[in-house]
Amino acid sequence: MTKATKTVAAALAAITLATAFTASTAQARPRFGAGLAIGLGAGALIGAAAVSNGYGPVYVYRECHYERRWDSWGNRYLVKVCS
Questions:
Q1: How many whole angstroms separate alpha carbon 50 and alpha carbon 43?
Q2: What's the rounded Cα separation, in Å, for the pair 14 and 20?
Q3: pLDDT in tens, 10-62
Q4: Quick one: DSSP state of residue 74?
Q5: 44-52: Cβ within 8 A, 24+ apart
Q6: What is the C-alpha to C-alpha distance for residues 44 and 83, in angstroms, rounded to an integer?
Q7: Please, where are the H alpha helices in 1-83?
């Protein structure tokens, strides 16, 4: 496991335990403010940890082209070459 995977797993375990211990009996009331705040906070922490460890977005631009090659019998074929 990488460090980022361990961090995410630990954060999810902590959130699960926190909601399990703070939850009372099931009630049918439209109350989602605390859950929304916990979710946004956890997402911000996990996102900040991922970016600070160098796991941010990686942009790779490849330029590919085809080259002609010949086999040992003199038959021509194309090969895709990416730099």
A1: 10
A2: 10
A3: 888 778 777 766 666 666 666 677 777 888 888 877 777 766 666 556 566 67
A4: S
A5: 45/11, 46/7, 46/8, 46/11, 49/4, 49/7, 50/4, 50/7
A6: 36
A7: 3-22, 33-52
CA dist 33 and 35 (Å) reads 6
CA angle, 4 then 10 then 16, to 5°? 135
CB 4 within 8 A of CB 50: yes
- How many domains, the chain? 1
Q: Taking every pair of C-alpha atoms in the chain, what is the biggest distance, in angstroms?
A: 79
Q: What is the pLDDT of residue 69?
A: 93
Per the structure, the complete domain to which residue 22 belongs is given by 3-82
